[in-house]
Design a protein that fits this description.
With 551 residues, the protein is mainly beta. Helices cover 15% and strands 42% of the residues.
C-alpha cells in the first residue's frame, strides 16, 4: 500500500508543473490573439451615428455604437469589422494598429433619389432638410397588420407605436415627438390621407390599400400644417391605377390566438378549507364564512378563467382592381376584417370600400378623386380592466342558484352566488351578463375629396381641392330584468334587477377647401420650388345620449 502511495505522489509531482505550463502557454496565446479596439462611426457630415452595428466579420462578436457614435470591440489583429446602420451603406474595414479609428458612412444614394410626400407636394429625399421616415407598400405587406397605425410599429425609425389595450380593434397610440400634453389624444400626430388632414386615428383605412406612409418628425417638415402638426405628421397615400395595366389582387390571411396564461388559483376544496381555518382563528368574529363551505369535499369546483377565455380567430380579406389608360386610371377595392377576441363576447368587424380616380382629359388639366367608406362593429362587454375579477371570484357557486351550481349548465341556466350571505353576495357571474345583455357599437365612416389641377406654364400649376369627412357612431346597451334571486329567496334577496336601456349617438362632419399655386423648375444644376395657398377646414360635432328603464 505504501509503495502505491509513493507512486501516486511522484506522479502528481510530475504532472502539476506540466499542467501549469500548459495553462500559462494557453493564456499567453489567447492574450496575443485578441485586442480591444475602440472607435467611432460618423456620417459624412461628421455627426455621430447612434445604434450602428459593428461586427467582427466571420464571427458572432458584435456591438452597437453609443450616443456619441463610439464603440469598443475585441478582435484579432488583421480582422475585418463590418459596420451597418439604417439609412446608410454598409462598410467593411480591417482593424488598424491604432486603437482609435473612425469609420465614415455614406447615405444610401438609392434612397436619396426616392420621392417622398411632404406637405402639399413631393420631393426627392436628398432635397428634404427635415427628418422623414418612410414605409412602403412592400414593407406593409410583409407582415399582416390590422390597422394603418400598426404598420408603423418597428418599421418607422423614431416612431413609438403602442397598443392601448388588447381588445379586438383596440386603439393604437402613436408618438413621434414624445409626450407634451396630458389631454386625451393630446400627443397624437396629424394624419393626412390622400391630401385630407384628419384628427384622431385612421383605423378606418384598409392597410392593403396603402401605397406609402411618410412620417414628418421635425419642425421644418411639419411647419406647413401649423399648430396641428406639433406632434408630427403622418402622410398616407393610397394605391392608384397605373397606365396600360390591369391588375387584380386578392389578399387574405388567417391568424389564431391561444388562451392567455391563467392564474394559479385555489380550487373549491382548497378555498373552503382556508375559509374555515380563517373563521376558526378569528376570535373577534369579524370574518364569517358560508355554511355550505363547512364540508369542502361536497363542493363543486368552477373555473372562471376557463369559462371566460377562448381561442381567438382573425380573418382578413381584400380584393382590388386597378388599371387605366393614358387618360384615366382607376383603383377600386373592398376589404373585410373580422377578429374574434380571446374573451367571450369580444369581437371587431370592419368592411371597407375604396375608390381612386385620376383623369387627365388634356395635358394641362388633371382631376383626382378619392373616396373611402368604412363600416365598423365592435364589442368588448367584459372590458380589459375587469379580468382580475376572474381570479377573485370564489371557485364554487354552491348555495346560490337552486337550479344549478355551474357557471352555465347544459339547459341554459346560469349560476349565481347566494344573495343573502354577506361575503359572497357581492360577486356575480360575468358570463351571464355577456350572453344575456345586448350590445351594439356601430360606426359608419366616409372620407372623400376631389381636386382639379391646371398647368398654366411649364412648372407652374394651380390646384383646388374640396372634400368632406363624416363619422356616425351609434352605440346601445340593453340589460334585461333579472328576478331569479327574488323568485328563489324572496325579499331577503333584495329587489329585482330592473331592465335598463341606454343609447348614445355621435355625429362628426368635417369639410375642407384648399387652393394652392406651385412652381417646380430645374435650370441646369439649379432648382426652384415653392408652394403657396389658402386652406379652410371646419368640423362640427353633435352628441346625444340617454338611458332609462324601458316600458
Amino acid at each position: 500500500m505504501m509503495q502505491k502511495i509513493h507512486f501516486l505522489k511522484r506522479l502528481s509531482i510530475k504532472v502539476i508543473p506540466i499542467f501549469g505550463l500548459l495553462l500559462f502557454l494557453s493564456s499567453q496565446s489567447l492574450t496575443a490573439q485578441t485586442t480591444v479596439y475602440t472607435g467611432k462611426v460618423l456620417s459624412d457630415s461628421g455627426t455621430a451615428i447612434v445604434g450602428a452595428t459593428v461586427k467582427v466579420k466571420g464571427t458572432s462578436k458584435g456591438t452597437a455604437t453609443g450616443t456619441d457614435g463610439s464603440f469598443s470591440i475585441s478582435a484579432a489583429p488583421g480582422s475585418t469589422l463590418a459596420v451597418s446602420a439604417v439609412g446608410y451603406i454598409s462598410m467593411e474595414r480591417k482593424v488598424e494598429q491604432s486603437l482609435d479609428f473612425t469609420l465614415a458612412e455614406n447615405q444610401n444614394s438609392k434612397s436619396l433619389n426616392e420621392v417622398v410626400v411632404v406637405g402639399y407636394g413631393t420631393r426627392a429625399r436628398k432635397d428634404v432638410t427635415g427628418s422623414i421616415s418612410s414605409v412602403n407598400a412592400k414593407t406593409i405587406e410583409s407582415v399582416p397588420v390590422p390597422t394603418v397605425e400598426s404598420a408603423l410599429q418597428g418599421r418607422a425609425t423614431g416612431v413609438q407605436v403602442t397598443s392601448n389595450d388588447g381588445a379586438p380593434g383596440g386603439n393604437v397610440n402613436v408618438l413621434i415627438r414624445g409626450v407634451g400634453s396630458l389631454a386625451s389624444y393630446g400627443n397624437g400626430p396629424l394624419y393626412v390621407v390622400d391630401g385630407y388632414p384628419l384628427s384622431g386615428g385612421i383605423n378606418n383605412i384598409n392597410p392593403s390599400d396603402i401605397a406609402s406612409i411618410e412620417v414628418l418628425k421635425d419642425a421644418s417638415a411639419t411647419a406647413i400644417y401649423g399648430i396641428r402638426a406639433a406632434n408630427g405628421v403622418v402622410i398616407v397615400s393610397t394605391k392608384k391605377g397605373k397606365k396600360g395595366t390591369v391588375q387584380v389582387s386578392l389578399d387574405g390571411y388567417l391568424a389564431f390566438q391561444t388562451k392567455p396564461r391563467t392564474y394559479d388559483v385555489l380550487d373549491a376544496q382548497q378555498f373552503a378549507t382556508m375559509s374555515n381555518q380563517v373563521e376558526a382563528e378569528d376570535l373577534s368574529g369579524n370574518y364569517q364564512g358560508f355554511d355550505v363551505w363547512d364540508n369542502p369535499d361536497s363542493l363543486t369546483n368552477v373555473n372562471w378563467q376557463d369559462a371566460l377565455y377562448r381561442s381567438g380567430l382573425t380573418q382578413n380579406y381584400s380584393l382590388a382592381l386597378r388599371g387605366g389608360t393614358d387618360k384615366l386610371q382607376s383603383s377600386a377595392s373592398i376589404g373585410y376584417f373580422d377578429q374574434k377576441g380571446i374573451v367571450q363576447g369580444s369581437y371587431f368587424q370592419r368592411i371597407t370600400l375604396g375608390l381612386n380616380l385620376d383623369y387627365t382629359p388634356i395635358t394641362w388639366l388633371k382631376s383626382v378623386t378619392s373616396a373611402k367608406y368604412s363600416y365598423q362593429n365592435s364589442n368588448n362587454p367584459f372590458g380589459t380592466g375587469n379580468l382580475l375579477q376572474l381570479a377573485q371570484n370564489p371557485p364554487t357557486m354552491d348555495g346560490g342558484n337552486k337550479l344549478t351550481n355551474q357557471i352555465k349548465d347544459a339547459e341554459g341556466n346560469y349560476g349565481f352566488f347566494n344573495p343573502i350571505n354577506t361575503y359572497v353576495s357581492k360577486y356575480n357571474n360575468p358570463l351571464y351578463g355577456i350572453e344575456t345583455n345586448q350590445y351594439s357599437n356601430v360606426n359608419n365612416y366616409f372620407l372623400g375629396n376631389t381636386s382639379l389641377e391646371l398647368t398654366l406654364a411649364k412648372g407652374l400649376a394651380i390646384k383646388t381641392l374640396a372634400g368632406i369627412n363624416t363619422s356616425t357612431y351609434n352605440g346601445s346597451y340593453f340589460q334585461p330584468e333579472d328576478d331569479r334571486k327574488v323568485n328563489q329567496y324572496g325579499s331577503a334577496a333584495g329587489a329585482s334587477s330592473n331592465a335598463n336601456y341606454s343609447q348614445h349617438i355621435y355625429n362628426s362632419f368635417d369639410w375642407l377647401w384648399e387652393n394652392t399655386i406651385a412652381y417646380d423648375r430645374t435650370f441646369g444644376e439649379n432648382k426652384i420650388q415653392f408652394v403657396a395657398g389658402v386652406s379652410a377646414q371646419q368640423t362640427t360635432n353633435n352628441f346625444m345620449g340617454g338611458s332609462g328603464i324601458p316600458p
